[in-house]
TrEMBL record:
<keyword id="KW-0119">Carbohydrate metabolism</keyword>
<dbReference type="Pfam" id="PF00343">
    <property type="entry name" value="Phosphorylase"/>
</dbReference>
<dbReference type="GO" id="GO:0005737">
    <property type="term" value="C:cytoplasm"/>
</dbReference>
<dbReference type="InterPro" id="IPR000811">
    <property type="entry name" value="Glyco_trans_35"/>
</dbReference>
<comment type="function">
    <text>Allosteric enzyme that catalyzes the rate-limiting step in glycogen catabolism, the phosphorolytic cleavage of glycogen to produce glucose-1-phosphate, and plays a central role in maintaining cellular and organismal glucose homeostasis.</text>
</comment>
<dbReference type="GO" id="GO:0005980">
    <property type="term" value="P:glycogen catabolic process"/>
</dbReference>
<keyword id="KW-0808">Transferase</keyword>
<feature type="modified residue" description="N6-(pyridoxal phosphate)lysine">
    <location>
        <position position="680"/>
    </location>
</feature>
<dbReference type="GO" id="GO:0030170">
    <property type="term" value="F:pyridoxal phosphate binding"/>
</dbReference>
<keyword id="KW-0175">Coiled coil</keyword>
<dbReference type="InterPro" id="IPR011833">
    <property type="entry name" value="Glycg_phsphrylas"/>
</dbReference>
<keyword id="KW-0328">Glycosyltransferase</keyword>
<protein>
    <recommendedName>
        <fullName>Alpha-1,4 glucan phosphorylase</fullName>
        <ecNumber>2.4.1.1</ecNumber>
    </recommendedName>
</protein>
<dbReference type="InterPro" id="IPR035090">
    <property type="entry name" value="Pyridoxal_P_attach_site"/>
</dbReference>
<keyword id="KW-0663">Pyridoxal phosphate</keyword>
<keyword id="KW-0021">Allosteric enzyme</keyword>
<dbReference type="GO" id="GO:0008184">
    <property type="term" value="F:glycogen phosphorylase activity"/>
</dbReference>
Length: 836
């Protein structure tokens, strides 16, 4: 303990005496105390929002107890820790998840009810912290939950953006972006750490000097900005362990710029300070594509430098030999966004700690590893040498050095193979030389991983082929997963209860392998009936939400068909809506009697488009325009509804996924690295219509291809087809699809001229994403969906089988694999208060 004086320590301990009680009175007292003393509201009158805040504070108090104990324990035992570096953490709301993880939902619900508050209403008061774009950020959040649950000593590190991903508002069918100032109501979950600050340098120059006959360098001058830490406790499920997510905010340096001040240039010195705060103000809203702005690079370096310093400081508390560093720390790079952390680490070891190159390189290489999340060329980060030299001059020198040594090795192994050297070089030559961040990451890491089997195979064979030849054991697979706590237990509490009832205990929530046993109930009539009832209730909840948000009434007796993800051409929301138009035109051809026999459908599409992604925005407009016509067509009525669900986010997903019956994962084969919502849908009893892409392939191995609706070109066919299409050898567009195009072009859905250029290029065969090529087999798969849905017994059996075979897709399994083969860390359960 910090108190060396025993008496003082005893006194302090007696003041606090025990941990917070779990009984009703203790819970109520802690909430009301926060109303009065933290929020300064009167305890006789506080709103739902006030009550939400006070409740969150009272929960945070409990988390702090275990969080402090956990860190104290890890420090005194000098354990190895994992550091997960990510520019995005798409956490979603915290209250329900926290209460479930610390097993106090029931206690809080009753305690609140007793003083007149409904816990479910409080859940809805919470803002959805959305510090991420899509898959990669949400994966980081699932990993945090699994790391804590598995009692792995691990910290997440990222940026505390003032503005998360924008709020999507639809006006006249078009997406508009509204800033999301998520902190306006305060954030009761975080702890500000004014004492944890680091100075971060930008620009300046390097100075060479000699020390004991060794040439050394020092980075000097430029501008200094401060990084301040904000911590959010991350509780695990059913454990006393509590990990941490540390996010950095930028602040002006303490020292005033006296020079400009003295020159009387007061305003410009204030301006410089404001520039500092600007660094962490906004999350770049691009998913799977790079925006090469200087500010983005500043964000990356800012957070990497603060993180690396923090990690080193923690290491030094207990260790004095640098060789031990890889035994005490594993740093994971979530895509290349935090790549500069590796160079910063090297710089500190060499320039500040005065290690020699060989030693420093070995330590770096043994402790860093990197995950690749995409093969899309537009997402592979490169930064111009000019920009890096300007912003981070010393880092640029080090990158050149790394590359120099590496190129020497390659030249030795493949003498004269300049083509290979060019491909493997960190520097892409040309008029505007670029640094290839992926190459840098691969070199600096001892392990590189893809996120699904197919994706890993593709990176080994395509973008990283040369590296895979040179480092045959470096690139391996870690199939993604999702946390069953948030995605079954919290999102679908009724389903969770039913599974617990069938399995006779709730251990499956922490050990998803146990869910396999559910298979025995796939044909149990009583169980199936409960299964159906739950889906229906979830659909009713969604229908009510759609009514509230859009004013559109959707029927509950229809198949709920959902595609929710970022809008991207490769994800092919366009193919989905083209099919919907085809379905609509077919329905229009029918007599009322024929129409009655059709399976009614509610098609829901949701997702944000990057603000600068014109084609994605055009697709949103088309979906809305089709919805306007179809939903108001008296001939069609409830047989088909088309909904664009605005502002798709984590909390929306928690309502949408449990209510879905069919979900679409229909990317062009080879383009979706993994997908993770496909896993969430399967866990919630939803069937998948999809291509053999990303994790769909492994889902089909687990649940069986017969239990999915698989269609479309396979990955090995895609290149040839593309080649054929672009050589002008495309097949004439089929009649059905031509009719759909004609309807769009002739104004059946009003003015959708924004989409016309895309339709014209499809007609010309310029179809990079194979929409026209896959359309027929997609229609066939959709027909099979209708036929299967008519046989409800079969459908429900497929649904139950899917859930019972979804265990592989728990992020607990994924994290165990990272721990074993990349991080080499152990599970460290800390003693609970009752143990000590
Ligand atoms: C995404 C991939 O697109 C998705 O397929 C995958 O499931 C997810 O990462 C998690 O691995 N990629 C991104 O979000 C991204 O921005 C640079 O990649």
């Amino acid at each position: 303990f910090i108190y060396h004086n025993e008496d003082k320590a005893k006194k302090i301990w007696e003041l606090m005496q025990t941990y917070q009680g779990v009984d009703q009175k203790s819970i109520q007292r802690s909430i009301v105390n926060h109303v009065e003393y933290t929020l300064a509201m009167t305890r006789f009158n506080f709103s739902d929002f006030g009550c939400y805040q006070a409740t969150a504070f009272s929960m945070r108090d409990r988390l702090l107890e275990s969080w402090n104990d956990t860190n104290q324990y890890f420090t005194t035992h000098n354990v190895k820790r994992v550091y997960y570096l990510s520019l995005e953490f798409l956490l979603g709301r915290l209250m329900q998840n926290t209460l479930n993880n610390i097993n106090m939902e029931k206690n809080y619900r009753e305690a609140l009810l007793d003083i007149g508050y409904d816990l479910e209403r409080l859940y809805d008061e919470e803002v959805d912290p959305a510090l991420g774009n899509g898959g990669l950020g949400r994966l980081a959040a699932c990993f945090l939950d699994s790391l804590a649950t598995l009692e792995v000593p691990a910290w997440g590190y990222g940026i505390r953006y003032d503005y998360g991903i924008f709020k999507q508002v639809i006006r006249d069918g078009y997406q508009c972006e509204v800033p999301d100032f998520w902190l306006s109501g305060g954030n009761p979950w975080e702890i500000e750490r004014p004492e944890v600050v680091y100075p971060i340098r930008f620009y300046g120059y390097t100075e060479k000097y000699e020390e004991n006959g060794v040439e050394r360098a020092q980075w000097k001058g430029g501008e200094i900005v401060m990084a301040k830490a904000y911590d959010t406790p991350v509780p695990g499920y059913n454990t006393f362990n509590c990990n941490n997510l540390r996010l950095w905010k930028s602040l002006p340096a303490q020292e005033f710029d006296f020079q400009s001040f003295n020159k009387g240039d007061y305003l410009s010195s204030v301006e410089m300070k404001q520039r500092a705060e600007y660094i962490t103000s906004v999350l770049y809203p691009n998913d799977n594509s790079q925006e090469g702005k200087e500010l983005r690079l500043k964000q990356q370096y800012f957070f990497c430098s603060a993180t690396v310093r923090d990690v080193i400081r923690r290491f030094k508390k207990n260790n004095s030999d640098w060789k031990d560093f890889p035994k005490k720390a594993a740093l994971q790079l979530n895509d290349t966004h935090p790549a500069i952390a590796a160079v910063e680490f090297l710089r500190i070891l060499i320039d500040e700690e005065k290690l020699d190159w060989g030693e420093a390189w070995k330590i770096l290489h043994s402790s860093f590893s990197y995950t690749n999340h995409t093969v899309l060329p537009e997402a592979l980060e490169t930064w111009s040498v000019g920009l890096i030299s300007h912003l981070l001059p010393r880092h640029m020198e080090l990158i050149f050095l790394i590359n120099h040594y590496f190129m020497e090795d390659i030249a030795k192994k493949y003498p004269g193979d300049y083509q290979r050297m060019e491909e493997m070089s960190i520097i892409a030559e040309g008029d505007d030389k670029q640094v290839r961040m992926a190459n840098l990451c691969i070199l600096c890491s001892h392990k590189v991983n893809g996120v699904a089997e197919l994706h890993t195979k593709l990176i080994q064979e395509t973008i990283f082929k040369r590296f895979h030849e040179y480092f045959p054991n470096k690139i391996e697979n870690k199939t993604n997963g999702v946390t069953p706590r948030r995605w079954i237990h919290c999102a679908n509490p009724k389903l969770s209860d039913l599974i617990t009832e069938a399995l006779e205990d709730s251990e499956w929530i922490g050990e998803l392998e146990r869910i396999e046993y559910l298979e025995n109930f796939a044909e149990d009539e009583e169980f199936v009936q409960k299964w159906i009832d739950i889906k229906k209730q979830n659909k009713e909840k969604l229908a009510a939400k759609v009514k509230e948000v859009l004013g559109i009434k959707i029927p509950v007796n229809a198949l709920y068909d959902v595609q929710i993800k970022r809008i991207h051409e490769y994800k092919r929301q366009l193919m989905n809506i083209l099919y919907v138009i085809h379905r609509y035109l077919t329905l229009k051809d029918m007599t009322p009697g024929e129409r009655e026999k059709v399976v009614p459908r509610v098609v829901i599409i949701g997702g944000k488009a990057a603000p600068g992604y014109h084609n994605a925005k055009a697709i949103i407009k088309l979906v809305n325009a089709v919805g306007d016509i179809v939903n108001n067509d008296k001939d069609i009525g409830d047989i088909l509804k088309v909904i664009f669900y605005p502002n798709y986010c984590v909390s929306a997903a928690q309502t949408l996924i449990p209510a879905s019956e069919l979900s679409q994962h229909i990317s062009t084969a080879g383009m979706e690295a993994s997908g993770t919502s496909n896993m969430k849908f399967v866990m919630n009893g939803c069937l998948i219509i999809g291509t053999m892409d990303g994790a769909n392939v492994e889902i089909s191995e687990e649940v069986g291809e017969d239990n999915m609706f698989i269609f479309g070109a396979r990955v090995h066919e895609v290149d040839d087809i593309r080649h054929r299409l672009f050589a002008g050898e495309h097949n004439p567009i089929g009649k059905r699809l031509q009719r759909v195009f004609d309807a769009i072009l002739s104004g059946t859905f009003g003015d959708v001229s924004i989409i016309h250029p895309i339709i014209h290029s499809l007609m010309d065969g310029k179809d990079y994403y194979l929409v026209t090529e896959d359309f027929d087999s997609y229609v066939k798969a959709q027909n099979k969906v209708d036929d299967t849905y008519r046989d409800q017994k079969k459908w429900n059996m497929m649904s139950i089988l899917g859930v019972s075979r979804s265990a592989k897709f728990s992020s607990d399994r994924t994290i165990e694999e990272y721990c074993d083969s990349i991080w080499k860390v152990d599970r460290i359960p800390i003693p609970t208060p009752s143990d000590s």
